[in-house]
Amino acid sequence: MIRIMTSNIWGDYFGNPVEERLPGIRDTALRYAPDVLGVQEITPGWYESRLFPDLAGEYTLVEGDTLNYTPLLFRTARFDLLARGWELYTETSDKSKGITWAVLREKETQRCVGVCNTHFWWMNGEEHERIRVKNALQLSARMEAIRAHYSIPVFAFGDLNCRLGSDALETLKKRGILTSYELTADFSPVSSHHGDPKRGEDGLYHGSRTGDDYRRSIDHVVGFSDQKLLRQVVVEDQDVLDATDHSPVHVDFEL
């Protein structure tokens, strides 16, 4: 079994310091032990923190050519890195919106899988949904290129900033790429987005579980229609609810 996890870690754009939230992000990753971890909103403050050094004993980091807000990590003991790449979305000048991809070969079996960590454009409105559609087209082209070249399963994951039924996800579907909700019947019933943690009287951040169901999720794992998943889980442990506005999502599958 292989586990992929995606986690938007709530970049420190809002006076929300990295250091006090880092343990919840790091400990959740170590507790659920994904084989591949995609993180979004990795700002300079996160790169300067202990997050990646603390994970270095278990994981290899795949970055970009310059500052990459969407890096991914893979379990060093399990995989060799065969190929990697990074690209920004062409339809937005936002340096945080792009794709980091890798081709990983399992050391024991020599079987391979392609993975893409991403973050779509975020604003609301028809013109912004059109940008997300173009993001979806660029992502699907990257996934298709990896699959065609290596003849392997390919999964993409991240904060897609769109819900089920959106134009962007329907665009992926037309290209034969489905969400985890269509690739397995065993999925969490709750949304992946629970909102910003709030500071309490104790001066610490406190997050709450969402009351929204899965149809309002914006963090997704997607794959080609012939790639089935065993399960999908939205993580609602208190330490990560306190650390970020997005619940991590993981999927399990057989390679």
Per-chain topology:
Blueprint: E1 2-8, H1 22-32, E2 36-40, H2 44-47, H3 51-55, E3 59-62, E4 72-75, E5 79-88, E6 98-106, E7 112-119, H4 126-150, E8 154-159, H5 167-174, E9 177-179, H6 180-183, E10 198-199, E11 205-206, E12 219-224, E13 231-234, H7 238-241, E14 249-253
Parallel strand pairs: 1-2, 7-8
Antiparallel strand pairs: 1-14, 2-4, 3-4, 5-6, 6-7, 8-12, 9-12, 10-11, 13-14
Helix pairs in contact: 4-5
**In one word, what is the shape?**
globular
Stated plainly, the CATH topology of the domain at 2-78 and 155-253 is called: Deoxyribonuclease I, Chain A
Low-confidence stretches: none
H/E series, N to C?
EHEHHEEEEEHEHEHEEEEHE
- Helix/strand-derived category reads alpha+beta
Task: Describe the 3D structure.
Helices cover 24% and strands 29% of the residues. The protein has 255 residues and is of the alpha+beta class. The chain has a domain at 2-78 and 155-253: Endonuclease/exonuclease/phosphatase (Deoxyribonuclease I, Chain A), CATH 3.60.10. It has a six-stranded mixed beta sheet, with no helix packed on it. The protein has a six-stranded mixed beta sheet with strand order 5-6-7-8-12-9. The chain has a two-stranded antiparallel sheet with strand order 10-11. The chain is globular, with a radius of gyration of 17 Å. 44% of the residues are buried. The model has no long low-confidence stretch (mean pLDDT 96).
